[in-house]
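Let's practice the habit of predicting before peeking. Look at the sequence and jot down your guess about where helices and strands might fall. Then scroll down.
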Amino acid sequence: MIYLTFDTDHMYAEGMTQFFDTIEIPGKGTFFLWKPFPEYDWRGHEAAPHPHYEDVRDPEILLREYSASIGMDLTGKNPPLGVRTHSCVTSHMISLAAKDAGFKYTSMTTRLGETRIKPYREPWGVWELPIYYMDNMDFCTVENWPEIGHRPFSKELIDKAITEPGLYVFDFHPLHLALNSPNFSYYQSVKANVIGNKGNPFDYSYDGYGTRNFYMDLLSAMKKNGLESQKLSSLLPVANGIG
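Done guessing? Here is the structure:
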């Protein structure tokens, strides 16, 4: 099964509005929020916090304070069920803090291109839902592991997720979808325009094949095979009677 997730880092109102107006999401996705977006109801998609850890000495307090800062009530009737930290910072302490703060799952470990992925129980009281694909992880692998001959945006990544049994969490950044980022260098070249100046990243979209093209190829394959995404929380094994 394929689950679409979106990390909203450095997106602002104008860019997010254009994202929802132009980027299709088949089924339901999960958005991890780096800031409050009070103007959105997320159109039935799941929303969860995306905290930035610079200090992990008291991770539970940060989780609670961050969730409150983006308008999420951890003690209300409909609290967020999951969390993904910025840059996927994780540790035993963070997993335990997530459980103590009331979260049911985290989604932070990465398994680029691996098949037959399954959720697993963290000993600290939360389920981990591993990431199969992340856009910037894909194109940064070329720079960090040049000796393995990795090809970003490989159709094989889509084919395996369609045909192989297992859990396939795809993670995209609306920022990279808007920019159609082809590689890390291009992102670095326009970063100041969209982050420092809070500009609309769609105004700096790359003309060639990039992240958005790969996303559209994924959607085409999903449609061809009658697949729709679901919220990550629907995957909780406990909710599905497995755990």
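How did you do? The CA atoms of residues 207 and 236 lie 39 Å apart.
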